[in-house]
Design goal:
- By secondary structure, the chain is α/β, with parallel strands linked by helices.
- It contains 17 helices and 13 strands.
- It has a 6-stranded mixed sheet, with helices on both faces. It has a 5-stranded mixed sheet with strand order 7-13-12-9-10. A two-stranded antiparallel ribbon has the order 8-11.
- GO terms for molecular function: ATP binding; RNA binding; tyrosine-tRNA ligase activity.
- One of its GO terms (cellular component) is cytosol.
């Protein structure tokens, strides 16, 4: 553990409870800035008995949440369990602008109808992680709509074009000669203004949101408020073991997927990637995860640890009974129909799409036939039914089954 950021001139050192809260804040995070300021806020909160205000904003750009989204939701829940006020902010106004973060082209804004439809499912799904009774739900149209043209111009005067162009995606697009629409500059301004409106003490986001989170600090200072701290979380790597989890890349696990599918997908991740999932997705203590990793390093089958992870995540979204049933289903299928003389196939090209994998393993005549069989529920990996036609598999060993009689053990590199 690094040295603690408190001054030797402080009258008393932080309490054990504050230090524990700091450790919870640090767990799995990419950056906690400024950490010294966050420690001061924690100390003040304990002394006054006043909860800190912790904000997470999500734009409802799609109707469903996947496990990648829950990385920041998990952190929010950990801080919520410490007694702080969690603000789940739905960016219904900012969604109409479109977040340009990490994009090399202008992102088309959503219509009001699309935003409404997506937002209807967002909080219901997020409530599977957060405690609804202790969550403040807000929509940023509450304060953004009343700004009007005059207020928007006044807000825009609080930041310079030169500073805005320091943002990586704007900088790269400008030098590449790619167009940048003026309205895109409004997105980080409006996200920052959310922190002013909510008097946020801490804002969470992915590493790709750092510029926008820092904007909140700047604008709070401009409006005479104590600047918020920011906490960025890593982007969860998807099932392919390469790209960040994304629905468009087909390497995701949706939190509304069937329990058996969720369980099987979690078991498909690599033994190495599993530990990142434990850190970012599990509610087990860091000590418990370290002890489990030590057991695996000492010879315990890593699949045992992966089953524990799959059961925990599946139970979170479907309940303990469904998780137990998914495990039993997996075990029954893994035992039941696998022949002793299992064909051995070695393939390269990981991460490899499921259709290409089945074709190269000579289990189907074509990728289109693979897609048809997946739709019919006729494809299993390690005993679990596969329903995602966009699934990409990372390097590893898999038992593939097509129908009742076709099997292959594939070593994918």
């Amino acid at each position: 553990m690094s040295s603690l950021p408190f001054s030797n001139t402080s009258p008393t050192p932080p309490s054990d409870a504050v230090l524990a809260a700091l450790q919870v804040s640090r767990r799995g995070c990419e950056e906690l800035l400024p950490e010294a300021d966050w420690l001061k806020k924690l100390v003040r909160s304990e002394a006054s008995g006043t909860p800190l205000r912790i904000k997470l904003g999500l734009d409802p750009t799609a109707p469903d949440i996947h496990l990648g989204h829950t990385v920041v939701l998990n952190k929010l829940r950990q801080l919520q369990d410490l007694g702080h006020t969690v603000i789940f902010l739905i960016g219904d106004f900012t969604s109409m602008i479109g977040d340009p973060s990490g994009r090399n082209t202008t992102r088309p804004p959503l219509t009001a109808e699309q935003i409404k439809l997506n937002a209807e499912t967002y909080y219901r799904q997020a409530s599977l992680v957060l405690d609804p009774a202790r969550t403040e739900i807000r929509y940023n149209s509450e304060w953004c709509d009343p700004l009007g043209a005059r207020g928007m111009i006044a807000l825009a005067s609080r930041y310079t074009v030169a500073r805005m162009m320091e943002r990586n995606d704007f900088h790269e697009r400008f030098h590449a000669g790619t167009s940048i629409a003026v309205h895109e500059f409004l997105y980080p301004l409006m996200q920052g203004y959310d922190s002013v409106a909510l008097k946020s003490d801490l804002e969470l986001g992915g590493t790709d949101q750092k510029f926008n989170l820092l904007m909140g600090r700047h604008l709070q200072a401009e409006y005479g408020q104590e600047p918020q701290c920011i906490l960025t979380m890593p982007l969860l790597v998807g099932l392919d073991g390469v790209e960040k989890m994304s629905k468009s890349k087909g390497n995701y696990i949706g939190i509304s997927e069937a329990a058996n599918d969720m369980f099987a997908k979690l078991l498909s991740i690599s033994d190495t990637l599993m530990w990142s999932y434990f850190t970012l997705l599990s509610f087990r203590s860091e000590e418990a995860i370290a002890a489990l990793k030590a057991e695996v390093d000492a010879g315990r089958n890593p699949k045992d640890a992966k089953v524990l992870l799959a059961k925990e995540i599946t139970a979170r979204f479907h309940g303990a009974a469904a998780a137990d049933a998914a495990e039993q289903d997996f075990q029954n299928r893994a035992k039941g129909g696998i022949p002793d003389d299992l064909p051995q196939v070695s393939l390269s090209g990981a991460p490899l799409g499921i259709g290409a994998l089945l074709k190269q393993a000579n289990l189907v005549p074509s990728s289109s036939e693979a897609m048809r069989l997946i739709e019919q529920g006729g494809v299993r990996i390690d005993g679990g039914v596969i329903s995602d036609k966009g699934l990409k598999l990372a390097a590893g060993r898999y038992v593939l089954q097509v129908g009742k009689r076709k099997f292959a053990q594939v070593d994918l590199s």
